Amino acid sequence: MDPISIVSGFTAGKTLLSLFKTFSDSLKDLGKTEVVSQLVDIQSAMLDLLEKYNYLIEENRGLREKVKELDESLKIKNSLEFHYKSYWIKKNDEQYDGPFSQMFWDKEKQLVRLIEYEKIEEGDHYKERMIYKCRETRETVAVPIEFIEKYKITTYDHDEIPLHK
């Protein structure tokens, strides 16, 4: 329901109540108490109806916000990929954003960016890689430098990024 319809409906209800009050005051002056009693009952029913109308408007607004949140969450979920014990948002075929904590996403559906912690040079049994660390859980992941370069990963140090995305 759009805001104009909501305001129009509420205004119409208030106007109708005002008309009933004016009409009942006129009948009261004429001594038609039985009709006045019926009009008071109608006014009471109208007030209840307006109250329910307001409740439904608020409930509708809350549901729309929830749908928007769920849509956003679904977009994120559909763009997530799991590589090297962490989640990454696939921006396009050539670029990823991340890494994000596996634990936070799996348990709370919350993206928490891992920060660049240490670069490990190539050794006899492994390739050059970057170690990322979660500021909250202290989990670490090792990501090969070739993956970082291939997918144009922007690295952040501790003070450059917000904790939660």
Question: What are the salient characteristics of this protein?
Answer:
three-stranded antiparallel sheet, 2 domains, alpha+beta, 165 residues, 53% helix, 4 helices, rod-shaped
Quick summary of this structure?
The protein has 165 residues and is of the alpha+beta class. The chain has four helices and six strands. The protein folds into two domains: 3-77; 84-150, no CATH class.
How would you characterize the overall build of this protein?
By secondary structure, the chain is an alpha+beta fold. The protein folds into two domains: 75 residues; 67 residues, no CATH class. The chain has four helices and six strands. It has a three-stranded antiparallel sheet with strand order 1-2-3. Strand 4 and strand 5 form a beta hairpin. The longest helix has 47 residues. The two termini are 31 Å apart. The C terminus is likely disordered.
| Tally of distinct domains | 2
- What is the oligomer described by this structure? single chain
Helical proportion? 40-55%
Largest sheet: 3 strands, antiparallel
Q: Tell me the number of strands.
A: 6
Topology:
Blueprint: H1 3-30, H2 33-79, E1 80-83, E2 86-92, E3 95-100, H3 102-108, E4 115-120, E5 129-133, E6 140-144, H4 145-150
Antiparallel strand pairs: 1-2, 2-3, 4-5, 5-6
Helix pairs in contact: 1-2
